[in-house]
From TrEMBL:
It catalyses: L-threonyl-[protein] + ATP = O-phospho-L-threonyl-[protein] + ADP + H(+); L-seryl-[protein] + ATP = O-phospho-L-seryl-[protein] + ADP + H(+). The chain crosses the membrane at residues 105-129. Gene3D superfamilies: Phosphorylase Kinase, domain 1, Ribonuclease Inhibitor, Transferase(Phosphotransferase) domain 1. Coiled coil: none annotated. SMART domains: S_TKc (SM00220). This is non-specific serine/threonine protein kinase. Belongs to the protein kinase superfamily. InterPro entries: Kinase-like_dom_sf, Leu-rich_rpt, LRR_dom_sf, Prot_kinase_dom, Protein_kinase_ATP_BS, Ser-Thr/Tyr_kinase_cat_dom, Ser/Thr_kinase_AS, Ser_Thr_Kinases_DiverseReg.
């Protein structure tokens, strides 16, 4: 309580990076400025116990705040309080409510007519598309309903049609996979034969697909709960069609076939970082220090593009070594955007379920279920510790203090044994100073206080300076 009084200043909406705003227990009056809904990073908001009135803003983060954020005010109303705002009567024109009601009825009829016409046009369009192929040069000829591709500079369509066998191939891809049919995908995966499985996740399996011309693709076949599968499918297509960068996995196309959702990616010859560090026999031994540092840098470039460059920015929410894929030159590509969230006015980074993977989940996710860019930084810090130590982030069968990688590394540093955390395969090769520098960066990223973690821009700069004259900052 600060004994604030008067109206909430509209200028607060200019603090675009504001994460918390607690104005509870004051003497504020007037309305909540609708402009506050533009604070897309706002994860905590409360104006309880004031004298506010009027409509609670909608959209953005305001659709996620609980009832307790607005309780005990003079006259707030809105959907969140289950108390709709009544229209104000017009004292000069007593019949205004009736006129308003008639107006709404007329508008409703117009909307209904427009919806009917729109639906008819949509069905007609789908029927036409089912009979014709849209070729890259703009010509048309008849084709089976299985195939359709787009070559347009107007952007990538992310509309989803249920139960129609369409293969949508993005216009920025090579001629090798243009006009790809579902039949060709089934043939390329040997009808999704188990022998072609190259990965798995919470929403389905990933298969190797080899086309007739020799081109390889990775095809993710989503399965499981229909609601979750649809959400994963849309999230990944939206995120990957928005983000195009050499250190992000490239989504080549997507498909809806018999209720099944397929996502097609560029094939990464060397699989995941997790496979090389923890699964492949002698895999870690083949990852020398220069290679591991290059992987960390490449992953940071991809993450920096997501966080800072692409519009809208993207929170990945599941950064881990199995989601960092390696091409034939061991260049890193950040993958698997199924849990990602675009930071848009109509999207929220506040989630209703705990997401992520054990060992990589930031501590604040379990407390407030808030997915943020700083949360991604914690997970990336864990990946850097994996590269340095060769250990998994969580090993359940070890003693308690050495079970969690982050806890064990911090304990060893506190005891002055930081060099003992390094992978024995890396020791004695003359790179100890560079490894200490990366360890400093990683430990800053896994700080328990998310406000003290660096941004990805800072991390990129520090990683670029490792081995050069400049050095990353030391921990306090």
């Amino acid at each position: 309580m600060n004994n604030f009084s008067g109206n909430i200043p509209d200028q607060l909406s200019n603090l675009t990076n504001l994460e918390k705003l607690d104005l509870s227990g004051n003497h504020l009056s007037g309305e909540i400025p609708p402009s506050l809904s533009r604070l897309h990073f706002l994860s905590w908001f409360s104006v309880a116990d004031n004298n506010l009135q009027g409509s609670i803003p909608t959209g953005g983060q305001f659709d996620t705040f609980p009832i307790s954020s607005f309780e005990r005010n003079r006259g707030l109303c809105g959907a969140v309080l289950h108390h709709p705002c009544s229209p104000q009567p017009n004292s000069l024109h007593p019949s205004a409510p009736d006129k308003s009601r008639k107006k709404k009825i007329i508008i409703g009829l117009i909307i209904g007519i427009c919806f009917g016409v729109g639906f008819t046009l949509t069905m007609l369009t789908l029927w036409i598309l089912s009979k014709r192929r849209i070729l890259p040069r703009g010509d048309s000829d008849k084709v089976d309903i299985e195939t359709i591709s787009f070559n347009s500079n107007s952007g990538i369509s992310t509309e989803f049609v249920n139960d129609v066998s369409l293969v949508i191939v993005f216009p920025n891809n090579t001629d090798d996979i243009k006009n790809l049919t579902i039949t060709e995908i089934l043939k390329a995966t040997d009808n999704f034969n188990q022998a072609n499985i190259i990965g798995c996740g919470g929403f389905g399996l990933v298969y190797r697909a080899t086309l007739e011309n020799g081109t390889k693709l990775a095809v993710k076949k989503l399965s499981g709960d229909m609601g979750l599968m649809e959400r994963e499918f849309k999230a990944e297509v939206e995120a990957l069609s928005t983000a195009q960068h050499k250190n992000l996995v490239s989504l080549q196309g997507y498909c809806v076939h018999d209720g099944c959702r397929l996502l097609m990616y560029s094939y990464m010859e060397n699989g995941s970082l997790d496979y090389w560090l923890h699964e492949k026999p002698d895999g870690a031994a083949q990852l020398d220090w220069p290679t591991r540092l290059r992987i960390a840098r490449g992953a940071s470039y991809g993450l920096a593009y997501m966080h800072q460059v692409c519009e809208p920015h993207i929170v990945h929410r599941d950064i881990k070594s199995s989601n960092i894929l390696l091409d034939d030159k061991f260049e890193a590509h950040v993958a698997d955007f199924g849990l990602s969230r675009l930071i848009l006015p109509y999207h929220t980074h506040v989630t209703t379920e705990l997401v992520g993977t054990l060992g990589y989940i930031p501590p604040e996710y379990g407390q407030a279920w808030i997915a943020t860019l700083r949360g991604d930084m914690y997970s990336f810090g864990v990946v850097m510790l994996e590269l340095l130590t060769g250990k998994r982030p969580m090993e359940l069968f070890k003693p308690k203090m050495s079970r969690e990688l982050v806890v064990w590394v911090q304990q060893m540093r506190n005891e002055g044994k930081q060099d003992e955390v390094f992978d024995p395969l890396l020791r004695g090769k003359g790179f100890e100073e560079e490894m200490r520098q990366l360890l400093d960066v990683a430990c800053m990223c896994v700080n328990q206080n998310h406000l003290k973690r660096p941004t990805i821009t800072e991390v990129v700069n520090w990683l670029q300076n490792i081995g050069a004259n400049g050095q990353p900052p030391k921990l306090d």
